[in-house]
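Hi all, long-time lurker, first post. I run a small reading group and we've been trying to get comfortable going from sequence to structure in the token notation. Rather than ask abstract questions, I figured I'd post a concrete chain and ask someone more experienced to write out its structure so we can walk through it together at our next meeting. Sequence below, copied exactly:
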Amino acid sequence: MTLVLGGARSGKSRYAESLIEARPGPWRYVATAQAWDDEMRERIAHHRARRAPPWETVDAPRDLPAVIRQAPAGRPVLVDCLTLWLTNAMLDEAADLAAETDALVEACRSAAGPLVLVSNEVGFGIVPENALARRFRDEAGRLHQRLATTADRVVLVVAGLPVTIKGDA
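-- Answer (accepted) --
Happy to help. Here is the structure in token form:
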């Protein structure tokens, strides 16, 4: 398992895709985004346009652990991105965030093939001014720490350049 972190437009998705594409296909792309507005629809379209067969896209805005568990054995899987999944979970007020995070970490631990997870590193900025944004930053940080402990490799992408934090470069 590889955890790829980076800021907005850092090149983290493109880097993660290159890790998966270095393996034999077909490849599975698990998308967590939801197209709530035109700008987000454009972002999703841009990401999809980069991926041609043998990429297979599976949408999983909420039940990410199940999608990871159901991936065919040996199939390389890319999840993009965990912070969107976290946002979706936080906006679902009925969600038990701790239980869902536990389920996600366990699904990642037991993945049946190569797994690359993409997420936004949001802890480098200033302290947000509102409680929801502070909670999001804190929950993302906790999620990243738990996954980084489990991951074989952790990479931070800055200005398109991957910096290996844990594991082999």
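A couple of things your group might point at:
The chain has a mean pLDDT of 93.
The chain is about 45% helix and 20% strand.
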